[in-house]
Amino acid sequence: MVGVWRILVAVVALCVxxxxxxxxxxxxxxxxxxxxxxxxxxxxxPISLTPPAQNIxxxxxxxxWYLLNTASKCSYLINHGTKVEPxxxxxxxxxxxxxxxxxxxxxxxxxxxWEILQVYDLSPTPGKLTLKGTSPQLTTEIVIAETDYDSxxxxxxxxxxxxxxxxxxxxxxxxxxxxxxxxxxxxxxxNMGLAYLFPFPTYSHCGVVDQDHVINCVPTx
Length: 221
Fold this sequence. Notes:
By secondary structure, this protein is of the alpha+beta class. 14% of the residues lie in helices and 31% in strands. Strand 7 (152-159) and strand 8 form a beta hairpin.
């Protein structure tokens, strides 16, 4: 049971891996000659280079969103990306004064429907969110990069300096080809070409989930 929820939370709910990323590896290389170490450059979080969409209205972000595509170098997705399951996210914001966004993610694992409950903390910058981890190193920074509220949203997730991008739609199968192409182009700017894109099924989404298959990650997992 513990192994199941760790996989679901780390990979399906966020598609932000705990196990590092995978890159293509070339052939053998000769041993490099020792060189003087260059001065260290200031560390810049990749997500800080991705500004949120202007004037994000978090209340209009609430409701149901179907996961359509993910761009990630997560080794789990690279090895199992052809087996991803239909995934749907529901956002709830109780009031304008509430500084949190409740998140329900439903998906399948081993032919059973599961639901993961989480909370995103709002930041003073509209469109920037935080999912707290069990330690600061496991905290996920989130940016709502682009949305029209009615048909699509593109979100960036960063954990341990690694970026994952996700494209959601209000409908499971009614997103334009132009928007799908735009998502691919944005992923390419993050050095994630077609090999790192993982389309999600647009059918057979989970409905009501029994309590035995609800994973409560509030406040953290």
